[in-house]
């Protein structure tokens, strides 16, 4: 499936600050921006300075929980921010203070620094914030639910989801006040996540493919074995990684006027797969030897978190805004093939 081409970079955007750029989604989105927009310059920031991506990038080290760091980074020249820094769901449960500091305070620091630029220079920075499906929870958001993100109340059941929901509201309000031009994206699980496993409860979804394709063992934490009914009944909402990166760039370049006056939040489209479809894709691409590296061990903590994540969403609004969706029949398989191809390069 090919998607329509992305719009040009708006003429006022020359330099983009990417925070959390040493992480998976930040680094891959940075590469895509450099490929798509030959004139763009990037400032890549993380706790440790990220790897340079060439002469159109500057790299910085800094902890964004420090408001001064956020102010210095934005400085005079940044026209847009893609804010990827985050503490994932597992670690946010284990370390409440750190989760809140990074998932809320560091984003507020960036928003405050951008507001200062608006108030002193009249420049409105485009601000893309990344949220996730963990903002949902409660009775209407069981795995079997089909959720309309525009009308479903947010009852997050994790500290990660709570922090993401709070940061979404900040972004909406700073946009409503005119301090920034904000866009906040609830990403589905990004598949297949390359590199090291993350501390997200959903980390196993990529792990079951990523590790065995590299000859390493992986655990499926939602079933006791291939015959467990959970293999067919636990729906997982995800998107092919390349589609996610494309949707993030779309959020940056789409016109602000397309959003309703009351919200800058978008549920990025995904597709629903089951654990069975994941292991079947693994066998198809990696053969029986890869499949044999998967073991099964139910993890109550993972299951508890997964049970508050809906398995399917109504994407009408997001598609109307120009975001794109993988083909439900082929999307996951393509994600696995992308990952395998990446291993050879
Ligand atoms: N990967 C997914 O499936 C997924 C799904 C939904 C939402 N998200 C969100 O997307 C964003 C990026 O995810 P990812 O998978 O690339 O995560 P990642 O863990 O690979 O990257 C996050 C980066 O943030 C950096 N960071 C943490 N604290 C920081 C601080 N105080 N100052 C500066 N940098 C700091 C980390 O060093 C890390 O490099 C996160 O906000 C995450 O919550 C990801």
TrEMBL record:
Q: What is this protein called?
A: NAD-dependent epimerase/dehydratase domain-containing protein
Q: Which Gene3D superfamilies does UniProt cross-reference here?
A: NAD(P)-binding Rossmann-like Domain, UDP-galactose 4-epimerase, domain 1
Q: What InterPro entries does the record point to?
A: Epimerase_deHydtase, NAD(P)-bd_dom_sf
Superkingdom of the source species: Eukaryota
- On whether Ribosomal protein is a keyword of this UniProt record, the answer is no
- PANTHER family per the UniProt record, alphabetical: ADP-L-GLYCERO-D-MANNO-HEPTOSE-6-EPIMERASE (PTHR43103:SF3), NUCLEOSIDE-DIPHOSPHATE-SUGAR EPIMERASE (PTHR43103)
Start and end residues of each NAD-dependent epimerase/dehydratase domain: 16-216
Give the species this sequence originates from: Leucosporidium creatinivorum
What keywords are assigned to this protein?
Carbohydrate metabolism, NADP
